[in-house]
């Protein structure tokens, strides 16, 4: 149970605190509108008033929160500072997108409650104007303010209208419709199916959030929610005067006509801070992207992988970080994330890009991938880089024993780590805290091995020279293989080097037996914290997480970190 | 990744609109609002739209992800043939369905959302997309192996010519005695 707390404890705590604040705000605002200054408003609306204002309060809070998890630069900066205090807290910042989605769901939920309550409110307001009978309090209340048009209670001012028209002629109504539509479009285009397949649709539609926030701030400017003014409360207490509404303002009555005013807009106070932070974030991204980036080398690897080696003035990276790359000649608006595959010790930085879609295909052609003769430097396209941004892989060197699991192209952050290990140990002879690395690469096809196999081969050679073969233990698993390959492997079974990779460590087939692997590592390294790092599909993440939880005992703890895009 | 299939987004939008229309209708009827007849219509229309849009279409490129339990809906929708296959029909159908929703506040949101879905379906139709049912693939039975019926046509593989050559100098130790002399080629 304790290992569950180590792995998940902080996340659960954060979510409970957030839910608690939501619940508190809901109840607080619900009770606020049960107060006396809203007595007459409740005569018209009943509890629907509170049901509308409570989610509004929660919406203010959640709309404040939603922009914060997507300020990548701010988060990277925070992560760097927090790391020195607590690794666990820093890991929490990796789950920013999950939190962003949770807050979005909460916004959608509160919006639904808010709208339904307001449907009732509009209906009741209309009812009050349509039942034109002076012996009914709601009608008398609706007639207030007809003269000066300022101290009225009922925002519907006549009976010759209907709720739909009123909605389209009030600021609150118009902005409400606009922002709800924006929210619905954002949500439908953010469904997993759309996001994974047509990222452009998701990304462009998501920018409707600009309309959302502008509308949200303007939503309260019409001051449509009206309560009794304090001055009026002093002279005309509703608890006393409500029953004598037929005598209000008459000479012999002690109850003057009550006066009403609207709430001042509150939302801007909640969202102005995060909006400014987000604008700063975008400015930082824009500034960083305008720094000149030079492509020093383009390498075309088999299995449709393109390697770009680049240089940029003042660029500094840590292991396993990622950057966003933009190529204006391909698309002016698209930025795509790629993990850096070079080590910080090298004088260039590189990314290995798999060609899977329109943008990557166009980038490949722009870099001259489909031409046979080499390109001149001036023919290469201009690029812009935003980043680097930190992720979980930065933590690798803080663990004594490390398990690295990469599936397919997910091996890229670990390429950076292994290279950095090579530089640190072999070239600089620095003392590293990490004593043992277990590396697992799961790959569906053999061709993807080539560029990474070269790296492993040189590492293998260097380690043998230095007599450090024990430091890195790697296992390559070929998860899908065909008859022809099997035949080739059968024939060369006795060869010293692996027939696929050329490495001394033989390639294994099928999927790893994680239970065995974890048990072996646990027995070999008692009393240590083992960091488990994964870059791969979610199902693998789930099974590894389960293994971490089940194999963490009193003396050895497996801490799970996942990289996600 | 690949070219955009607008119908996938239109489908999400239409399903969401159906739910919104349904919710607005329920509120209108339950609260006995003025114009509740439009709300009652919206309930029926919302249910209809949800049933129509629940089964996802098969993608022309790439893997299609089914919604849970959509198989029975797929069969129903498929049975309407060209009416449900063609996206022009769907676009006009949604545009027509959404209009009565505009007459009452509770259903206005559903009306506008469905209108937007109709526009996206229209774009999809112009680009030549159509609805394909996702049906489970029938397992093709393995054909009975040929080798059971036919005897082998070729002789068994032999060691290379080197070792097959008649070793006249060492007849006792030779692998076997060839009646015909063998040359390696």
Automatic annotation (TrEMBL), chain A:
The gene is LOC115577026. This is NADPH oxidase 2. The keyword DNA damage does not apply. PANTHER family: CYTOCHROME B-245 HEAVY CHAIN, NADPH OXIDASE. The keyword Flavoprotein applies. One of its GO terms (cellular component) is monoatomic ion channel complex. Residues 282-395 form the FAD-binding FR-type domain. It holds the Pfam family Ferric_reduct. It comes from Sparus aurata (Gilthead sea bream). InterPro entries: Cyt_b245_heavy_chain, FAD-bd_8, FAD-bd_FR_type, Fe3_Rdtase_TM_dom, Fe_red_NAD-bd_6, FNR_nucleotide-bd, RBOH/FRE, Riboflavin_synthase-like_b-brl. Its cofactor is FAD. GO terms for molecular function: metal ion binding; superoxide-generating NAD(P)H oxidase activity. It catalyses: NADPH + 2 O2 = 2 superoxide + NADP(+) + H(+).
UniProtKB/TrEMBL annotation, chain B:
GO terms for biological process: macrophage chemotaxis; neutrophil migration. InterPro entries: Cyt_b558_asu. Residues 142-185 are annotated as: Disordered. Its main location: membrane. The keyword Phosphoprotein does not apply. The chain crosses the membrane at residues 12-30, 36-54, 91-124. It is found in: Cell membrane. One of its GO terms (cellular component) is NADPH oxidase complex. Component of the phagocyte NADPH oxidase core complex/cytochrome b558 complex, composed of CYBB (heavy chain (beta)) and CYBA (light chain (alpha)). Component of the phagocyte NADPH oxidase complex composed of an obligatory core heterodimer formed by the membrane proteins CYBA and CYBB and the cytosolic regulatory subunits NCF1/p47-phox, NCF2/p67-phox, NCF4/p40-phox and the small GTPase RAC1 or RAC2. Interacts with NCF1 (via SH3 domain). Interacts with SH3PXD2A. Interacts with DUOX1, DUOX2 and TPO. Interacts with NOX4; this interaction mediates superoxide generation. Belongs to the p22phox family. Subunit of NADPH oxidase complexes that is required for the NADPH oxidase activity that generates, in various cell types, superoxide from molecular oxygen utilizing NADPH as an electron donor. Subunit of the phagocyte NADPH oxidase complex that mediates the transfer of electrons from cytosolic NADPH to O2 to produce the superoxide anion (O2(-)). In the activated complex, electrons are first transferred from NADPH to flavin adenine dinucleotide (FAD) and subsequently transferred via two heme molecules to molecular oxygen, producing superoxide through an outer-sphere reaction. This is Cytochrome b-245 light chain. It comes from Sparus aurata (Gilthead sea bream).
């Amino acid at each position: 149970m304790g290992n569950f707390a180590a792995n998940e404890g902080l996340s659960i705590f954060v979510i409970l605190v957030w839910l608690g604040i939501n619940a508190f705000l809901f109840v607080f605002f619900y009770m606020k509108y049960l107060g006396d200054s809203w007595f007459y408003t409740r005569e018209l609306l009943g509890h629907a008033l509170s049901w509308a204002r409570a989610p509004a309060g929660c919406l203010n809070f959640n709309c404040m929160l939603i922009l914060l998890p997507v300020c990548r630069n701010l988060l990277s900066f925070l992560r760097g500072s927090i790391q020195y205090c607590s690794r666990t807290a820093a890991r929490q910042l990796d789950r920013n997108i999950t939190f962003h989605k949770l807050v979005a769901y909460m916004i959608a939920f509160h919006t639904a409650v808010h709208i339904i309550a307001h449907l009732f409110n509009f209906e009741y307001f209309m009812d009050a104007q349509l039942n034109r009978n002076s012996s009914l309090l709601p009608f008398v209340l609706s007639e207030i303010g007809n003269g000066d048009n300022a101290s009225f209670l009922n925002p519907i001012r006549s009976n010759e209208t209907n709720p739909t028209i009123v909605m389209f002629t009030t600021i609150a109504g118009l902005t409400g419709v606009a922002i709800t539509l924006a929210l619905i479009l954002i949500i439908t285009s953010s469904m997993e199916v759309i996001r994974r397949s047509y990222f452009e649709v998701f990304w462009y539609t998501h920018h409707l959030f600009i309309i959302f926030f502008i509308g949200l701030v303007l939503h309260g400017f019409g001051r449509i929610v009206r309560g009794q003014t304090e001055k009026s409360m002093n002279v005309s207490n509703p608890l006393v005067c409500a029953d004598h509404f037929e005598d209000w303002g008459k000479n012999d009555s002690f109850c003057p006509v009550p006066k009403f005013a609207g709430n001042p807009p509150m939302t801007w106070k909640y969202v102005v801070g995060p909006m400014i932070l987000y604008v700063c974030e975008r400015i930082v991204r824009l500034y960083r992207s305008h720094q000149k980036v030079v492509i020093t080398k383009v390498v075309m690897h088999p299995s449709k992988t393109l390697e770009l080696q680049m240089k940029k003035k003042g660029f500094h990276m840590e292991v396993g970080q990622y950057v966003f790359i933009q190529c204006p000649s391909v698309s002016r608006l698209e930025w795509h994330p790629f993990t850096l595959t070079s080590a910080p010790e090298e004088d260039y930085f590189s990314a290995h890009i798999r060609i899977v879609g329109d943008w990557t295909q166009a980038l490949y052609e722009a870099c001259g991938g489909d031409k046979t003769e080499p390109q001149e430097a001036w023919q290469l396209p201009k690029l812009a880089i935003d980043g680097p941004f930190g992720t979980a892989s930065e933590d690798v060197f803080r663990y004594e024993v490390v398990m690295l699991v990469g599936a397919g192209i997910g091996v890229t952050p670990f390429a950076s780590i292994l290279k950095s290990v090579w530089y640190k140990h072999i070239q600089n002879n620095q003392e590293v805290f990490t004593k043992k690395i277990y590396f697992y690469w799961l790959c569906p096809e053999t061709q993807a091995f080539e560029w990474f196999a070269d790296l492993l081969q040189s590492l293998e050679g260097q380690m043998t020279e230095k007599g450090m073969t024990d430091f890195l233990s790697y296992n390559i698993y070929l998860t899908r293989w065909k008859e022809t390959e099997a035949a080739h492997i059968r024939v060369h079974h006795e060869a010293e080097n692996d027939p696929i990779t050329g490495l001394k460590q033989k390639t294994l087939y099928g999927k790893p037996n994680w239970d065995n692997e974890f048990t072996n590592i646990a027995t070999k390294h008692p009393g240590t914290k083992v960091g488990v790092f994964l870059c791969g599909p979610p199902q693998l993440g789930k099974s590894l997480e389960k293994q971490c939880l089940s194999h963490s005992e009193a003396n050895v703890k497996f801490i799970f970190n996942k990289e996600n895009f | 990744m690949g070219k955009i299939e607008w119908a996938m987004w239109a489908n999400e939008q239409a399903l969401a609109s159906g739910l919104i229309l349904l919710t607005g209708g329920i509120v209108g009827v339950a609260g006995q609002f003025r114009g509740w007849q439009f709300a009652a219509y919206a309930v029926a229309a919302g249910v209809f739209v949800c049933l129509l849009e629940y089964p996802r279409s098969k993608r022309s490129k790439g893997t299609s992800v089914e919604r849970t339990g959509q198989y029975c809906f797929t069969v129903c929708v498929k049975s309407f043939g060209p009416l449900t296959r063609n996206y022009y029909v769907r676009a006009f159908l949604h545009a027509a369905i959404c209009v009565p929703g505009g007459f009452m506040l509770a259903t206005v949101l559903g009306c506008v959302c469905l209108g937007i879905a109709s526009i996206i379906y229209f774009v999809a139709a112009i680009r030549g997309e159509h609805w394909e049912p996702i049906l489970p693939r029938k397992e093709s039975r393995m054909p009975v192996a040929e080798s059971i019926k036919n005897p082998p046509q070729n002789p068994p593989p032999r060691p290379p010519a080197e070792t097959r050559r008649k070793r006249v100098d060492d007849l006792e130790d030779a692998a076997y005695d060839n009646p015909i002399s063998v040359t390696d080629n």
